[in-house]
């Protein structure tokens, strides 16, 4: 059996419970893929987006829902070594990529504060634009379960707000486009186990400014949050699950204030009307 076949077969066999079922649950629970979709699978060269590409590739082979895939690699200014590694891995795993180049890294290199946030916004914009040019109506990103719970705590600790990384979003700047996250319920440890089982080597972070950057702008704070969650997990095995579930179980009658469509509301608006 060739390498790409072994890698793909393992997703629905050896890692069926840990990866494939979680992937399918993400699609079904949040209605991520519909008939007639043309999805740009955005690949950074890391383990997460590579697994996402293989899962969607496998889904396309067997699903009764008909959809198209475009495997999209944006080069924001990768080093020659990283660019080569991405292309070699895609060739090894039989992922037919379309590569396009941008000058994002040079553009944000002189930004002292917020370079991760600016880079993330620029990358997202270029991906939407290229996906539209290819006739796609959706872009798929490789964020996973751990990214979600880390984002919840990042927002609370450093943003003074409660919000999460959504499983799907409609673009406000690119009409008709939508962002989906097919690995939304897949744990990072499962992705790492899949990668290590096949002895695959992917790029970790190709940013020239900091090796700890993250696609969603968490920057250098994300490793801190990872460690906090790990430490909390020692207190109870339910900690991570409860963080995730907390944004599904919001009790508005026990919330001081909230924002809806950028409009701020307070509990006082209806306080005197309650019996």
Outline: globular
Low-confidence stretches: 210-218
CATH architecture: 3-Layer(aba) Sandwich
Number of helices: 11
Enumerate the strands of the largest sheet in spatial order, edge to edge or round the barrel: 3-2-1-4-6-5
How would you classify the helix and strand content by structural class? Answer: alpha/beta
User: End-to-end distance, in Å?
Assistant: 69 Å
Helix content: 40-55%
Query: What's the CATH C level?
Result: Alpha Beta
- One letter per element, helices H and strands E, the order comes to HHEHEHEHHEHEEHHHEEH
Amount of beta strand: 5-15%
| Radius of gyration based on Cα positions | 20 Å
What is the domain tally? Answer: 1
Characterize the main sheet.
6 strands, mixed
CATH superfamily: HUPs
Number of strands: 8
**Mean pLDDT over all positions:** 90
CATH topology: Rossmann fold
Description:
By secondary structure, this protein is of the alpha/beta class. The chain has a single domain (3-250), classed as Rossmann fold. Helix content is 47%, strand content 13%. It is built from eleven helices and eight strands. Helix 7 (145-159) crosses helix 9.
List strands and helices in order, with pairings.
Layout: H1 3-12, H2 16-30, E1 38-42, H3 47-62, E2 68-75, H4 80-92, E3 97-101, H5 104-108, H6 115-133, E4 138-140, H7 145-159, E5 168-170, E6 178-180, H8 188-197, H9 221-233, H10 239-246, E7 257-260, E8 263-266, H11 268-271
Parallel strand pairs: 1-2, 1-4, 2-3, 4-6
Antiparallel strand pairs: 5-6, 7-8
Helix pairs in contact: 7-9
